[in-house]
Amino acid sequence: MSLVTLIALFSLIHFVLFDKVILPTVLKGQSPLNEQSWKYMFLLFLVYYLLMTLVITFITLVNKKYGPGVLLPLLMGKYRQHREEERIFMFMDLKSSTTIAEELGHLRYSGFIRDSFMDINQVVTSYNAEIYQYVGDEMVLSWRIAEGMDNMACIRFYFACNNQFQQRADYYNHHYAKVPFFKAGLHMCKITAVEIGEIKRDIAYHGDPISTVARIQSLCNSYDKSLLLSKPFTEHEEFLHSFHSVSLGMILLKGR
Is the pLDDT of residue 245 over 90? Predict the structure, then answer.
């Protein structure tokens, strides 16, 4: 289809724009190009089109794999050596996932998770979130500090996801008889980022705070909360200007 479009576009330029408009008005009927020249121009046009298609496809695939904005740092070798970064991490986990899986069966449950993640993906770019990992029915997201704290995008993202699910409630009720709801934990921390792997490359984040975020999220059921934040996050100036939080006191995290 793309090749047909290319041929149609080139024919429009040659036989309509050039022959019918430019040649009789601007060039006074004396064309500097013969048919052989047009053939060479078409071949150049075709080669350029194919090269640009490959480049755009490559950029699109990299963006889908790593997320927007990662290609240039990868090409420049930014993550070949480990480097320390300060980031915001959010672990989102489907509430009552075991019960839902038993009710739907593994095939419908897989479709339920797929649709849920697709709806979250519709919200990601609007709030500058980066998808780090999918782990079963859990999604791990990350923000650079400046982007995550800009108008508290990392917090508003969570509520935007819930709003997206509610807007699609009719679809979920029709296909699965239930609407997804995710509980989440959020933490601001320093981690180590590095490019790993050879056959399958990826950017990995290492550090004790990563497991801390997961354990914060795991406490949502214990305290009957949908969103839990770490103390360093709630003490940030930008958060204090925008939201009010309720302290649960000092909690000893499992394994910490």
Answer: no
